[in-house]
Design a protein that fits this description.
It contains 13 helices and no strands. The chain has 309 residues and is mainly α. It has one domain. The chain starts with 15 loop residues before the first helix and ends with a helix.
């Protein structure tokens, strides 16, 4: 099953609706950090990940049934769902969780924010309509610099230690990049974004369920209600709804533009902390947000095209 995309939508620029959905996706994923922090107080990691994708699968298939969406039966499409689940959930989720057992979350966030860089490279190799340009690469570097400044330059002090966990986070980012390129095929196959999301998380659940059963076993009795609520929200909101947005953006704006969400997630997480936890913004965080904004503008390209017109 090749990653090569031969049928491409015309144009991979972002319109206003795409940007709105991307910002909403970043806000949802930014809030997921709090929910994960609650969930790990009562459940082991593999169990959380399995329940997250499994809950999303149940909710999404219920939506498919209620709305009467067409469910594909072709074996090739279901095989693609399995591959997408492996690339976009199983591999990166497991690598990130393992990596964060040895390195700080700030450093992990910076390494994960390299996703757009890898996506530009992967898209240029495998997608006919998403070629790498100097402007795109400059935008990615500027955005990555903004993430680094916003999270804190001191987090880079850990780059000399724990090499394997850092490589794990980088491999997770590369896996996300391949998932973005691979996922473009679902539009060409004519699969609805909700069905695509349901199929992907179902594939992830089938892979993760036996692993969680062997490693974690059944959840212990007495897990607090807040932990179950956090897992339910992770599955329904941060995975189910989020991946519907994910595949809509992917179909209309392409893998490179979709990957920009990794720049926006830290901003969403910090702003949610300001709004909900009374945290304050530092000068470095304002500077980092400005750099990220500049990087996004370079990658989007519309402002530059207007100025040159």
């Amino acid at each position: 099953m090749s990653l090569k995309q031969t049928t491409a939508p015309a144009g991979m620029s972002m319109n206003g609706s795409d940007w709105t959905q991307l910002l909403l996706l970043s806000a949802i994923w930014g809030g997921s950090f709090f929910l994960v922090a609650v969930a790990v107080t009562g459940l082991p990691v593999l169990t959380i990940v399995t329940l997250r994708v499994g809950t999303a699968a149940l909710i999404l298939w219920a939506i498919v049934a209620v709305t009467g969406r067409h469910v594909p039966h072709a074996p090739a499409i279901w095989a693609a769902f399995l591959v997408m689940g492996l690339l976009n959930n199983v591999i990166p989720f497991c690598l990130i969780v393992w990596g964060q057992t040895a390195i700080p979350s700030g450093l992990a966030s910076i390494l994960n924010a390299t996703t757009p860089l890898w996506t530009v490279i992967v898209a240029a190799l495998f997608l006919t309509d998403e070629k790498a340009t100097i402007q795109k690469l400059a935008g990615v570097v500027l955005g990555l610099g903004g993430v680094t400044v916003m999270i804190g330059l001191d987090t880079l002090s850990g780059l000399g230690n724990a090499v394997l966990p850092q490589l794990a986070i980088l491999c997770a980012a590369i896996s996300y990049a391949f998932a973005g390129a691979f996922g473009r095929r679902f539009r060409a196959m004519g699969v609805d974004p909700v069905v695509t999301a349901a199929g992907m998380v179902s594939g992830s659940t089938l892979i993760l369920l036996p692993l969680a059963a062997m490693v974690d076993g059944l959840p212990s009795a007495g897990v607090p209600a807040r932990v179950w609520l956090a897992v339910l929200m992770l599955g329904g909101l941060c995975t189910g709804l989020a991946y519907v947005l994910y595949f809509r953006i992917l179909a209309h704006a392409g893998a490179t533009n979709l990957s920009l969400v990794t720049f926006l997630v830290p901003i969403s997480a910090i702003l949610l902390g300001v709004l909900l936890l009374n945290e304050t913004l530092s000068a470095a965080q304002f500077c980092g947000m400005a750099l990220i904004g500049g990087g996004l503008a370079l990658i989007d390209g519309r402002l530059l095209r207007r100025r040159s017109a």
